[in-house]
Amino acid sequence: MIEVLRSTWPLFVGIAFSTLSYGLQVPLVPVRAFDEGFDTSITGLIMAGYFFGVLLGAIVTPRLIQHVGHTKVFAALASIASGTPLLYTVHTDPTFWILLRVVTGLCMGALFIVAETWLNDRCTNQTRGKVLNLYFMIMLCSAGLGALMLNLADPRGVELFILSSVLVSFGIVPILLTAKPAPSYRAPKRLGVVALARKAPLGLGAFAIWGMADGTLMASGPIYADKAGLSNAEIATFMAVIYLGCLIFMWPIGQLSDRLNRPRFLLAVSLAAAAVAVVCALTPPQFVPLLYGLTALLAGLSLAHYGLCLAVANDQLEPKEMVGAGATLFLCYGVGTVIGPILATELMEAWRAAGFFAFLAGVHLLVVLYGLALMLLGAVGGARRQPAVAVPSLAGQLATESALESAREADRGQDDKPAGA
């Protein structure tokens, strides 16, 4: 493990700086949008644009890597990602801002795919799980710290946009200067949506539906906080506690799912999240510390589901199908992250700030109803017991596939043990 860290620390440093920039832009862009006079619906579209870009990146980046190589793809898209934050201060047209968020999502998603490919290449089957856990922890901590950087300057100025640009630039340097050559990459054969729906309907459906909740938390959270009357400092803290909640609950939920009936546990987690969302909706925003605590709990139950849904899907798949299913699951999840913020902001237009948590409660209840319907139809049958892997919602497509590879290797290791061992 020490040898792996010695060869991968430039990747971790680069990922940390890039995610700091991402975390800063999440509250910065909507706060500035409201200062510029954009309404709630337009701001929701702007924030949803990021996830649409990530979705495009997941489709385009593997092909670019195969044609021109990791280094060129990384350098080109990192340069674009570094320059994009500066353009928000140049032109304040909503359509232009939506385009900027799409470009940012595409570039950041691609950067993570390239970095995750390098990271996966440096891992062995024995170290992949530990390295992925460290990677996910760095991502969540960096995103939370990035959100708190909103307090460093006035969002109405240019300083924070410059800082966001500089952070991406700093993230480029250690990765490009790494001495190791870029690995070869071959996209796994994808398991189609129809085939996956037949084999793992609960995992696939929960992924897509829960994606709406995750996209809403990460993109519409600052919009809710602004409409609730929180100050800029409180908006920054509100977003930081969302990432903190995911960090706290990610591993316990994965461990519990290994010990309990996993489909029922998934529905129980979703039902609990719906209940917490209802309590959040009824909590006056003036009780800020209570709101922070409840939001951290809701985020922990919601964002930490990512690895749980992977495990539920894996339980219905053969080991050879698991990695190929990862790309399909990620794309279905990505569609949900685009739709969620748009619908949530429309509901906030009608119901004001309370519409944010009302939407989240409805999404989680939809997962419960969908799961119960499948159980009544007998579509959730006997399952293999694949080990769960803690994966946060910030994970990219390659990290998702790597986590599935780790689960497959862990399952293979269990199968290789002699009876009674």
Name a few traits of the molecule.
single chain; 421 residues; mainly alpha; 15 helices; globular
Compute the number of helices.
15
Number of E strands:
0
User: How would a crystallographer describe the biggest sheet?
Assistant: none
User: How does the helix and strand content classify structurally?
Assistant: mainly alpha
Give the topology string: H per helix, E per strand.
HHHHHHHHHHHHHHH
Rounded Rg: 20 Å
Mean pLDDT: 84
Distance between the termini: 25 Å
- Report strand %: under 5%
Proportion of residues in helical segments: over 70%
Model regions low in confidence, pLDDT < 50 over at least 5 residues? none
Shape: globular
List the helices and strands and how they pair.
Layout: H1 2-35, H2 40-68, H3 70-87, H4 94-122, H5 128-148, H6 159-176, H7 193-199, H8 201-227, H9 232-259, H10 262-282, H11 288-303, H12 305-314, H13 319-351, H14 354-376, H15 397-416
Helix pairs in contact: 1-2, 1-4, 1-5, 1-6, 1-8, 2-3, 2-4, 2-8, 2-13, 3-4, 3-6, 4-15, 5-9, 7-8, 8-9, 8-12, 8-13, 8-14, 9-11, 9-12, 10-11, 10-12, 10-14, 13-14, 13-15
Notes on the protein architecture:
The radius of gyration is 20 Å and the shape is globular. It has helices spanning about 1-35, 40-70, 70-85, 95-120, 130-150, 160-175, 195-200, 200-225, 230-260, 260-280, 290-305, 305-315, 320-350, 355-375, 395-415. It has about 425 residues and is mostly helical. The chain contains 15 helices and no strands. The mean pLDDT is about 85.
How is this structure best summarized?
This protein is mainly α. Helix content is 79%, strand content 0%.
